[in-house]
Amino acid sequence: MQTQAMIMTSEILVMFVILVITAMLFARISEVIKVPDVVLYLLAGIIIGPSVLNLVSIDHYPLGNQLILTFGSAFILYEGGREVKLRVLNDIKTSVSLLSTLGVVISAAVVGFAAIYIFKIPMIYGLLLGAVVASTDPATLVPVFKKIKIKERVKQTVISESAFNDAVGAILVVAILAVINSGTFSLTANLKTLGVMIFGGIAVGVAVGVLFSILISDTKYGYFHDFAPILSLVTVATSFVLAEELGGSGYMATFVTGLICGNKKVFKLWVPETDFVSQMHFRETVALLMRMSIFVLLGTHVDFVSLAKYWQQSLVFVLLLMLVARPISVLICTLPDRKVKWSSKELMFIMWVRETGVIPAALSSIIVAMKMPYSDIISSAVFMTILVTLLIQASTTKMFADKLGLLEPNEDFEREKKLKPLLG
């Protein structure tokens, strides 16, 4: 048994090294050719996957696949939760709440029912596909918004929605998988299960978030503030495992834990500055590693036979998501929020910015690893969705915001423009 365990450990380490080195190489290439890095990660996965070099595959490293996808998506959700600032959200909370809950359900339903006819698959698998792609991606959106200066309420709405709806989308997928595996559908039973998953995850997330925030604070109970970076990993693992053991959603728990940890000041908890900085750098590094690994893994899962067979249907599916499902969900979820008074230009921008990324990639990979029926169709459609939304939407975000007049003056740029004539 020990020998087998050592072999499995060695295989996981080998896979991780291959993934990270490959991702770093292609990240550099993306900087040179000015293409979103996640697109190059997908290409890297294809090259090292079964289709080309066959260095990494689900069959070779099943445990490593599952570990990276599960923990990686949980950690990214934790980081997404930390990006949400409760005070800034106060004015836009209704829109964000509706977009990240009802909006996910609407998008999943619209493209899910469309998938039934596009791919000729049973309804439950169409809805599963819809649920996988319904959420947006904070790991992609946050870097985009760091490069452009846009109206704060628009920026916070898009980022906060993406952080919240990843957890909701993950829960929706898990709930549909539970229906598929049980073979029965009971509205009462499934709503009850969904309620337990959501509220159980929230309860665990709040408890773990408060406890670990206290343990790294500068109060008399901050016994472990020197180990703040390490506790980031422990916090994510604890909240995920504890929630799952109690019947709640591990994804919701890790997201809420991040929300609590990212808003410690609201609870009058402070972390010593040195520990805060070291923890921040450590978290960013781990999140980058997980993001890179998940996208490269998704590339290794691409089945070119299926993609060649379904690429046209997948393209139609993506266009419906971008041009029909997203606008419908945004209008339904924002118009009731009379307090904010969204302008038509702001709504058009929110409709356009909905990149698909890490969590859908991880969920798709998990479904493939489970060898679910129609997983080849789901994998092809998700791959096409990520590719198209990143190539078209992520790369045109700044241009679209500029055309709509939503960009705000960049103070550094304006200062440099004024000084240039004086400097000759």
UniProtKB/TrEMBL annotation:
Residues 23-401 form the Cation/H+ exchanger transmembrane domain. It is found in: Cell membrane. The keyword Transferase does not apply. The keyword Translocase does not apply. Keywords: Antiport, Cell membrane, Ion transport, Membrane, Transmembrane, Transmembrane helix, Transport. PANTHER family: NA(+)/H(+) ANTIPORTER 1, NA(+)_H(+) ANTIPORTER 2-RELATED. This is Sodium/hydrogen exchanger family protein. It comes from Acetoanaerobium noterae.
